[in-house]
Amino acid sequence: MAVHEHAHQSPRFHLSVAFRRHRTASGSESAVSARLGTRTAQAYALASLRILTGFVFLWAFLDKTFGLGYATASGKGWADGGSPTKGFLSSVAAGPMRSTFHSWAGATWADWLFMLGLLGIGAAVMAGVALRPAAVAGTAMMALMWLAEWPPAKHLSDGSPSMSTNPFADYHVIYAAALIAVAAAGAGTTWGLGRLWARLPIVRDHTSLR
């Protein structure tokens, strides 16, 4: 009798187990699919941030070089004999490095260093290569520009309002944070040449160049 009941209930038991296994497998597949979808969305978001941030630097280089009529008036670009640092640094009116920036304004070395920095950072970040060196250079540049504008000041040296909207987190800080974020996340592999760059022998031997 016991043998008969066991044989009668066994199919139900096996069907129940099979159903639970199928449901567990389906749940696992859904979880994996959700994780993959999240990672893909994050990769696209970081790639978008990388490209937009790189374009900020590259566009600044192009505008200051050729005088495209935005921040730099037509005919006053670097290619026309203008200085990309003279106007900005000579107008610094607050902060502990005001006199230092005035002495740098229009210097040939300052113009070349600034412009090569804009070009190198912009091109590297947009291409998705050398993100770590670009983040270091870009953060240093943004720190100097932050010091030049000196957001903590409420008034300029002549006593007029500085019009600072935040004593710390201005756009220079945001750009620096964006550069650090895309470099730390290795965001050059999506919509970029990051994988090809990482395969170069010198980059494999020196991970700081990634």
Explain the overall architecture:
- The protein has 210 residues and is an all-alpha fold.
- It contains eight helices and no strands.
- The chain starts with a helix and ends in a 5-residue tail after the last helix.
Write a concise synopsis of the structure shown.
The protein has 210 residues and is mainly alpha-helical. The chain is 67% helix and 0% strand.
Helix content: 55-70%
Largest sheet: none
Number of DSSP helices?
Answer: 8
Note the beta-strand portion: under 5%
Keyphrases for this structure?
about 210 residues, mainly alpha, about 0% strand, globular
Give me the secondary-structure topology.
Elements: H1 2-66, H2 86-90, H3 98-104, H4 108-127, H5 131-149, H6 171-184, H7 194-199, H8 201-205
